[in-house]
């Protein structure tokens, strides 16, 4: 079985960070979004991955090759962003007729992935949501099968959202439906959607059952990314990443502090993740994500997302600052 992870999106909702960093590589609870996904799949037994890259794709490839040298990895370039359906179709020659597991590169789900991989039938990951209009939506029949899927319906007939995890056994039918939709220019919301290809398969009598995830973390916007960071910091407890004593500094768990950081006369936490080699002095930081090689001096930050190589002096409350930024608030 091969795992396909589409990571070609530009991450427009997380700008300015995604001008210089792929969304999948944004730090989260001492790791990255992509590493959390890969580690989860490797633990379940997956050893071969196909990454669909585009915007800043060379950073994705370099990161994966350096961090996971023992995995078999393929990289497919999506030069034009035409949707998830188009992205998956580009992997056809690599996948051939193997079973596949598709996991979208901006979503973290928790569930029994071993059960998912070993299922004798195709499965779609589902989670009940309050407002499903911004997601693909699955409708169920009386036998517990998925009878219909629709991408971002204005009037949903179900509150079961597709969470971005798909186990597909009938790969030939999937690729045929993807190609057919592109040939016929069948789009939803101006893009070729994977959801539409799944609906095509359902109409051709392919059966899908639900795979209900226990948790689903949305990493596509600043607010939800910070919430996810706080949840995962508590979950991981970072036993393998002990917090060192820092001069005149109070650490309020949970926090994750990267290697080579210099912190003094500050209060850090709760719910803070700091990248490698950052310097923080005379500052208060809570409920925030701080990138690598960043310098904070005399600042008060809460609910902030700070990129790498940023230099901030002065006083602030809530910031959304990208990489390679210098700000003086004094």
Automatic annotation (TrEMBL):
A Pfam family of this chain: NTP_transferase
UniProt domain Nucleotidyl transferase: residue ranges: 2-233
Keyword Transferase assigned: yes
Keyword DNA damage: no
Cleavable signal peptide: none
PANTHER family linked: GLUCOSE-1-PHOSPHATE THYMIDYLTRANSFERASE, THYMIDYLYLTRANSFERASE
A molecular function (GO) term: transferase activity
Keyword vocabulary terms for this entry: Transferase
Protein name: Glucose-1-phosphate thymidylyltransferase
Record CDD domains: NTP_transferase
């Amino acid at each position: 079985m091969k795992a396909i992870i589409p990571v070609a999106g530009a991450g427009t909702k997380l700008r300015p960070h995604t001008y210089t960093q792929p969304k999948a590589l944004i730090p989260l609870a001492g790791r990255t979004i992509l590493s959390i996904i890969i580690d989860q799949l490797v633990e379940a037994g997956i050893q071969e991955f196909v990454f669909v890259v585009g915007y800043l794709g060379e950073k994705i490839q370099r990161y994966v090759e350096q961090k996971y040298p023992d995995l078999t990895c393929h990289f497919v370039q999506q030069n034009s962003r035409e949707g998830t359906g188009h992205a998956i179709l580009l992997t056809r020659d690599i996948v051939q007729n193997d079973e596949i597991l598709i996991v979208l590169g901006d979503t973290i789900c928790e569930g029994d992935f071993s059960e998912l991989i070993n299922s004798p039938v195709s499965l779609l990951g589902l989670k009940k949501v309050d407002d499903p209009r911004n997601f693909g939506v699955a409708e169920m029949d009386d036998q517990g099968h998925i009878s219909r899927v629709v991408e971002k319906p204005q009037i949903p007939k179900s509150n079961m959202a597709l969470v971005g995890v798909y186990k597909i056994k009938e790969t030939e039918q999937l690729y045929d439906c993807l190609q057919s939709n592109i040939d016929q220019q069948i789009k939803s919301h101006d893009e070729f959607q994977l959801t539409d290809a799944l609906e095509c398969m359902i109409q051709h009598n392919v059966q899908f059952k639900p795979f209900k995830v226990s948790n689903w973390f949305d990493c596509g916007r600043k607010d939800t990314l910070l919430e996810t960071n706080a949840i995962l910091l508590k979950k991981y407890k970072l036993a393998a990443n002990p917090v060192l004593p820092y001069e005149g500094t109070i650490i309020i768990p949970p926090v994750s502090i990267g290697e080579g950081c210099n912190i003094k006369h500050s209060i850090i936490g709760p719910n803070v993740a700091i990248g490698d080699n950052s310097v923080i002095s005379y500052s208060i930081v809570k409920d925030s994500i701080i990138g690598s090689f960043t310098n904070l001096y005399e600042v008060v930050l809460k609910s902030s997302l700070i990129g790498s190589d940023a230099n901030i002096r002065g006083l602030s409350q809530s910031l959304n600052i990208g990489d390679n930024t210098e700000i003086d608030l004094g």
